[in-house]
Design goal:
375 residues, alpha+beta, 5-stranded mixed β-sheet, binds adenosine-5'-diphosphate
């Protein structure tokens, strides 16, 4: 019995109603026990003169009838209250337990991998006009959608990583088999090919590590007031040679009176290196790349513009997505994994800045720009 009460809300509710009924009945019975005889006594003494000699017997008779009627009324009221309590506790507990039970079943379903499971919510989906249970159901559904999204991202990421690893690995494997079978000569070119693919794998693993760090928000930024010219010069110094080799011109326009920006020098250096590196990669020989900076309100805007292959409008909104490449075969040959811009976006946003891509279309160059807060 105690186990039944402990396990079911309806029996708990019923028990609490029952306690109230018992208390109310006891209070009513004792009140009538005190009040009724005294009131009866008073009435009878007033009426004694009118009733004559049989008054005592009559009084006794009346009193017995009256107290029986009161007791019967009390018993009937208690019985009606008891039945109503039973019905009410069943109805209320049904109202409460039904959504709770639905959530329990849904959570078991979700735990077994069915992330599309949702519970029913009546009325407004915003949560106004909802009681605590309604709001609980809404947040349960929100939690389920978040889980579903995370799960979709996780399996998409695993698929992408496997896909990215497959190409260099099968190239290494193919070359090694060629070497073993004697089909390929054991010369510098063959080993160079294996070495390039191994380097690509290493870059991919480094990018993935960096991506997981930035996506987890586990970055410790060393924010310091930094001159923009210093950020730009460091990036240029590392790429100048490659610009010369490819015969792409590189110009900068960074005004001397720009305010300092609040930035982690090495992280923003990484962003610039990625944007300028991309500009170089996607600009054919004879093209131009320029880096400009200007103040815009409480921020400084840095712009990397090239006269390269450009980006078609349908691709533009996606270039910051993980593993997104406009031209898969071309970037693959260049060694890009499509993670660079995703990392750059996270880094800029960690600085409370914004990054954008623009292009007038294929063959008409691209412009990448980002803001940094003034120190
Ligand atoms: P990747 O390592 O492949 O360059 P990114 O994340 O840096 O990866 O860039 C994603 C994609 O955006 C590139 O594969 C390329 O298609 C496109 N892209 C980036 N920068 C440029 C640019 N300056 N000009 C043309 N396309 C670009």
């Amino acid at each position: 019995m105690i186990r039944l009460i402990r396990r079911h809300l309806k029996w708990k509710l019923f028990l609490s109603y029952l306690i109230i009924i018992v208390i109310a009945t006891v209070v009513a019975a004792s009140a009538t026990g005190f009040v009724v005889p005294a009131a009866f006594e008073r009435h009878m003494s007033l009426m004694a003169s009118m009733m004559g000699e049989n008054s005592e017997e009559l009084e006794q008779d009346l009193y017995t009838n009256f107290s029986t009627a009161v007791a019967e009324a009390l018993a009937l009221a208690a019985l009606v209250a008891f039945v109503s309590a039973l019905i009410l506790s069943l109805l209320i507990s049904r109202q409460v337990t039904l959504p709770v039970r639905e959530m329990m079943d849904a959570s078991v379903h979700i735990a077994s991998g069915h992330y599309d499971e949702r519970v029913g919510v009546f009325g407004s989906a915003q949560g106004e006009d909802q009681d605590e249970l309604g709001r609980l159901a809404l947040s349960f559904n929100r939690m389920a959608s978040a889980l579903e999204q995370t799960e979709a991202l996780r399996s998409e990421l695993i698929g992408n990583v496997a896909h990215e690893l497959r190409t260099p690995l099968s190239s290494i494997k193919g070359t090694m088999e060629g070497l073993i079978d004697g089909v390929l000569p054991a010369d510098v070119e063959t080993f160079g090919r294996v070495h390039r693919e191994a380097e690509r794998l290493q870059r991919l693993v480094q990018d993935l590590q960096e991506l997981s760090r930035v996506e987890a928000g586990a970055l410790e930024l060393q924010l310091r007031p930094t001159p923009v010219s210093q950020l730009v010069e460091t990036a240029i110094a590392r790429l100048a040679r490659q610009f010369e080799d490819k015969e792409v011109s590189l110009t900068t326009d960074v005004p001397l009176d720009l305010p300092l920006v609040l930035a982690d020098e090495s992280r923003i250096g990484q962003v610039l290196l990625n944007l300028v590196g991309n500009a170089l990669q996607y600009t054919p020989a004879g093209g131009r790349v320029s880096i400009r900076a200007r103040r815009e309100g409480r921020t400084v805007l840095l712009v990397v513009q090239d006269t390269g292959i450009g980006i078609a409008p349908e691709h533009l909104p996606h270039v910051f997505e993980r593993f997104y490449r406009v031209d898969r075969s071309r970037s693959r040959a260049g060694g890009g994994s499509g993670i660079g811009l995703t990392i750059a976006q996270h880094l800029v946003e960690a600085h409370r800045g914004q990054i954008r891509a623009a292009s007038d279309g294929p063959g008409r160059g691209s412009t990448f720009s980002f803001t940094l807060p003034v120190a």
